[in-house]
Amino acid sequence: MGSKNKLKRFKENETFDNVFQPTRDELVNQEYPLKGHWRSAFFKNDNPLVLELGCGKGEYSVALAQKYPDKNFIGIDIKGARFWRGAKTAVEEQISNVAFLRTQIELIEHAFAKNEVDEIWITFPDPQIKYKRTKHRLTNAQFLERYKAILKPEGIVNLKTDSEFMHGYTLGLLHGAGHEVLYANHDVYKQEGSPEEVTGIQTFYEMQYLEQQKPITYIRFKIK
Predict the structure, then answer these.
(1) Active site residues
(2) Same-domain status, 132 and 95
(3) What mean pLDDT is predicted for residues 136-143?
(4) Domain assignment of residue 38, yes or no
(5) End-to-end CA distance of the chain
(6) What DSSP line would sit under 147-170, residue for residue?
(7) Pairwise CA distance, residues 206 & 59, whole Å
(8) How far apart are CA 126 and CA 154, in angstroms?
(9) Three-class DSSP category at 117
(10) Contact at 8 Å (CB) between 142 and 135?
(11) Interatomic CA distance for residues 206 and 192, integer angstroms
């Protein structure tokens, strides 16, 4: 994507009322006004709040919002030029139960309050295979602690990935730490009875993986 195109998208993001782009300072050193108030201040309802972390183009967040109008969705990514697509679609199609937050996932505790979030989706994250990069792996112990800090006690986390490595790493970590694995499958499209929200929505990259016959893995779990 050319820098001209990126700038155009950044500019357009600023005009969307479903896009929030706080600075690091606003999140870390000040009390972010929407923290604890996403339902009342933006969505104007009491419906469950669901986050998609590393939402990319935002297509999964938008599709979930269309599928579940009685839930609120927020796609989170540091790359605003990517989720511009999802935000624009939501504006054009008047999908009012989805928003986008531009921030680093490490800062989510500053954007959401304790017990504010009902569910988290992590879709096709970078597996960060090299040992030195484990601190960036979105299901490592530190990230799970961050999720626990904002999830309700019965809150759910979903991991959907094409990486067998990430699937195995996460399962091992969950079992080792005594977290509750509700469902795990290393090839959701081959297995009968896979959850519909997992197989019924496909991202652009997921379709490419399926064409290459790469298995798509899925874990649903609770953090204890």
Answers:
(1) 126
(2) no
(3) 94
(4) no
(5) 42
(6) HHHHEEEEEEEEEEES-HHHHHHH
(7) 11
(8) 27
(9) strand
(10) yes
(11) 19
CATH of the domain at 69: 3.40.50.150
With b meaning 16 or more CB within 10 Å and e meaning fewer, what string describes 13-32? beeeebbbebeeeebeeeeb
pLDDT (0 to 100) of residue 119: 98
**Residue 207, amino acid:** M
The pTM of the full predicted model, rounded to 2 decimals, is 0.94
- Residues facing residue 73 across a β-bridge: 50, 98
Tokens 């094409």 locate to: 162
At 106, the pLDDT band (50, 70, 90 cuts) reads very high
Same domain, 62 and 143: no
Structure tokens at 60: 């999964």
Tell me, rounded to whole angstroms, the distance of Cα 208 from its chain centroid.
Answer: 20
Distances (CA, A) of 180 to 76, 167, 170, 171: 25, 15, 12, 10
For residues 141 and 198, state if they share a domain.
yes
Report yes or no: 162 and 206 within 8 Å, Cβ to Cβ: yes
Strand 72-77 and strand 151-161: pairing? unpaired
Kindly state the tokens that stand for 215.
Answer: 């298995």
Instruction: Specify the residue for token string 């030195």.
Output: 132
Answer yes or no: are the C-beta atoms of 185 and 194 closer than 8 Å.
yes
Q: Specify burial of residue 56 (Cβ count, 10 A radius: 0-12, 13-18, 19+).
A: buried
Parent domain of 67: 1-27+48-100
CB 155 within 8 A of CB 145: no
Q: 146-177 pLDDT, tens per residue?
A: 999 999 999 999 999 999 999 999 999 999 99
Q: CB neighbours (10 Å) of residue 90?
A: 26
86 in Cβ contact with 98 (< 8 Å):
yes
CA 205/CA 82 separation, integer angstroms = 13
